[in-house]
C-alpha cells in the first residue's frame, strides 16, 4: 500500500509540475501551495531537475522546426556568409542576451530569492501580481514580428524572466507580458519566450547533474523518478499547446482570472 501511494504521489507531482511549468501560473508557486495545503514533503531539487528536463523535452518537440531552421540559417550566415539569414543570426544572439539576466541572478541569488519568498503568503501576492500583469496585456495584439526585435527588447524580456526566481511569478507569464508590452505580436512573443527558456533550462539541468548523480535516492527510486519524468513530458506538451491556442485566440484573461483568484485565496486562507 505504501509503494502504491508513493507511485501515485510521484505521478501526480510529475503531471502537476509538468502542466504548470509552461502556462503562466507559476509552477514553483503552485508546488509551494501544494506542499502547504497537503502538508507533504516534496522530493527535493533532484526531482525538480527531472521535471524541468521533462518540460524542456516537451518545448523542444513543439518548437523543433523553429529551432532547426534558426540554427541552420544562423550557421549558414556565419560559415557560408549567406546574408539572407542575417536576421536569424541576430535573433539567436538576442536570445542569448535575453537569457543572461536570469542566468546570472539564478547562479548568485537563487537561494536568496527562495529564502526571501519562503512563506506561502508571498506566493499569493506574486500570483496576484502575475494576474494583474496578464490582465494588462489581455487585449494587446502587438505589431513587431521576429525580425523587428531590438536589443533593448531582448534585455527587457530577459530582466522580466529573472523575476520568476520568486515563487508565484510565472516565467512564461513574465516574459510574455514583457514581450507584449514592448510590442511583439502574440505568436512572436510566445516563440521568443519559450526559445529563451531552452538555454536557461539546459543550464539548470547541467547544474543539477552533480546532485542527481550523488543522490542516493535515485537508485532506490529510479522507477518513480522515470514515471514522474514521463508524466511531466506529456503534461508539459499538452499544457504548452493549450497556452499557444489561448494566446492565438486572445483569451489570456482566463489565466489572469485564475491567478488573481488563486492569489487572493492563498494569501487569506493559507
Automatic annotation (TrEMBL):
**Which keywords belong to this entry?**
Antibiotic resistance, Cell membrane, Cell shape, Cell wall biogenesis/degradation, Hydrolase, Membrane, Peptidoglycan synthesis, Transmembrane, Transmembrane helix
Q: Which Pfam families match?
A: BacA
Q: Which GO CC annotations does the UniProt entry carry?
A: plasma membrane
Where is this chain's protein located in or outside the cell? Cell membrane
The membrane spanning regions, by residue number, are 44-63, 89-108, 120-137, 189-210, 222-246, 252-269
Report further notes: Bacitracin is thought to be involved in the inhibition of peptidoglycan synthesis by sequestering undecaprenyl diphosphate, thereby reducing the pool of lipid carrier available.
* Annotated PANTHER family: UNDECAPRENYL-DIPHOSPHATASE (PTHR30622)
Task: Say what the protein does.
Answer: Catalyzes the dephosphorylation of undecaprenyl diphosphate (UPP). Confers resistance to bacitracin.
- Please report which protein family the annotation says this sequence is part of: Belongs to the UppP family.
Q: What is this protein called?
A: Undecaprenyl-diphosphatase
Gene coding for it: uppP
Amino acid at each position: 500500500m505504501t509503494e502504491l501511494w508513493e507511485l501515485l504521489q510521484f505521478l501526480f507531482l510529475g503531471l502537476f509540475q509538468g502542466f504548470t511549468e509552461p502556462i503562466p501560473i507559476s509552477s514553483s508557486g503552485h508546488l509551494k501551495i501544494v506542499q502547504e495545503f497537503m502538508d507533504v514533503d516534496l522530493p527535493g531539487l533532484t526531482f525538480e531537475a527531472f521535471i524541468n528536463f521533462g518540460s524542456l523535452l516537451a518545448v523542444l518537440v513543439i518548437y523543433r522546426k523553429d529551432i532547426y531552421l534558426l540554427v541552420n540559417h544562423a550557421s549558414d550566415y556565419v560559415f557560408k556568409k549567406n546574408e539572407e539569414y542575417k536576421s536569424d543570426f541576430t535573433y539567436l544572439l538576442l536570445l542569448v542576451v535575453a537569457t543572461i539576466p536570469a542566468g546570472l541572478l539564478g547562479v548568485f541569488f537563487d537561494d536568496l530569492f527562495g529564502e526571501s519568498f519562503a512563506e506561502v503568503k508571498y506566493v499569493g501576492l506574486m500570483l496576484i501580481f502575475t494576474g494583474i500583469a496578464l490582465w494588462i496585456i489581455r487585449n494587446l495584439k502587438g505589431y513587431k514580428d521576429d525580425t523587428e526585435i531590438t536589443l533593448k527588447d531582448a534585455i527587457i524580456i530577459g530582466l522580466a524572466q529573472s523575476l520568476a526566481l520568486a515563487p508565484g511569478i510565472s516565467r512564461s507569464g513574465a516574459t510574455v507580458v514583457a514581450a507584449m508590452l514592448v510590442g511583439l505580436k502574440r505568436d512572436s512573443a510566445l516563440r521568443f519566450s519559450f526559445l529563451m527558456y531552452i538555454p536557461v533550462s539546459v543550464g539548470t539541468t547541467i547544474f543539477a547533474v552533480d546532485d542527481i548523480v550523488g543522490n542516493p535516492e535515485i537508485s532506490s527510486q529510479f522507477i518513480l523518478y522515470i514515471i514522474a519524468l514521463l508524466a511531466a513530458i506529456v503534461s508539459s506538451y499538452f499544457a504548452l499547446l493549450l497556452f499557444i491556442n489561448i494566446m492565438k485566440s486572445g483569451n489570456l484573461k482566463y489565466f489572469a482570472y485564475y491567478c488573481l483568484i488563486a492569489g487572493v485565496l492563498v494569501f487569506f486562507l493559507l
